[in-house]
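Contributing new records

If you add data, match the layout below exactly. Sequence lines come first and carry their own label; structure lines follow with theirs. Keep one chain per record. Anything else will be rejected by the validation script.
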Amino acid sequence: MTRTTSLRTLAQRWLSALVLSLALVTVASAQETIRITGRVVSKSDKEPLIGVNITDAHVKRAYAATDVDGRFAFNVHLGTTLKFSMVGAKSVKVKVKNQKFMEVEMEEENISLGEVVVAAKIIKDKITPEPTDIEVKGNYFHVRTRVRVPREMFSHDTRLVVQPILNDVTRGELKLMRPLVYDAKGYNTTQDRMYGFNMNDSVAGDPLARHVTVKSKAMREKNRTNDIIGYSDSIYVEHVKDEFSCDVYMAIENYNRILYRDTTIIARGTVNPLRWLDYSFAAGEMNDSAYIPKPRCSCVTAVARSI
C-alpha cells in the first residue's frame, strides 16, 4: 500500500512538472511574438516610400508592403531578420529586437543596363506587365498595357490585384490609377457569397467589385497556357512637362493571406510629339515690313498723274 501510494505521488509530481513546463513553453512562445509598426523613408529627403516589400530575410515569407505614407504593421517573432526591398532602392535588413516601432531609411540605387541578350524563356513564377509608354493628350495621360498571368501561379481560389501608379518624378507626387482586379471563378463565387450575394453593392459590397474581371477562356493567350489581361486608363495631370514614370504594384491573395507580391516600372517618360512646341494666340504688333500688304498694281499711281 505504501509503495502504491509512493508511485501515485511520484506520478502526480511528474504530471504537475509536465503541465508546468508546457505552460512555461506556451508563455515563452507567446512572448516571442510582438506587434511591430514602422515607417520607411528615403535616406536623401526623408520622404515616405510606398510599396516597399517586407519579407523574412531567411525563409522568404512576405509580411506586408508599405502604404502611401510609407507605414506598415504586422506580427513577427523576436529575432527575425526583416528585408526591405523595392525597385530603384538598395535592400535593407533589420533584426527585430524589443522595439515596437522602427524607421527604416532606404538609399536610392542607380541601375545600369548592360548588354541585352534575348532568349526564349517561359516565365512561370512572375506576373509580367508589358512595358509601355505614357501617352499625352492635352492634360490627360493615357497608359495601356497587358498583364500576363502564368497558369502555375493562379489557382481557382485566388485574386490578382494590379495597381498602376503615376509617379511625378519632378515633384515627388504619386497618383493612383484604376486598379486591375482579376478573380478566379471559385474566388469570385465565394466572395459574392461572403457579401450576401450582393458583392457589387456600392456601400456594403466588395470595394473592388467594379474593377473585377473574372477568369474565362477568352483570357487565354493564343497558343499559350497563361492568361493575358488588357488594361487601359487615363488620368488628369496639371504639370505635363514634368518627368513621369508609371509604377505597378501587384499581389496575389487567397481568402486569408498574400501569396505573391512584386513591383515593377512599365513606363519611363512620356510620349508627346508636340511637347517641345510653345505657342501663344495673343495678338501682337507686326514689325516686319515683308508681311505688310502692298498695292497689287500701279493703277492708282497712273490715275493720279493724269489728273
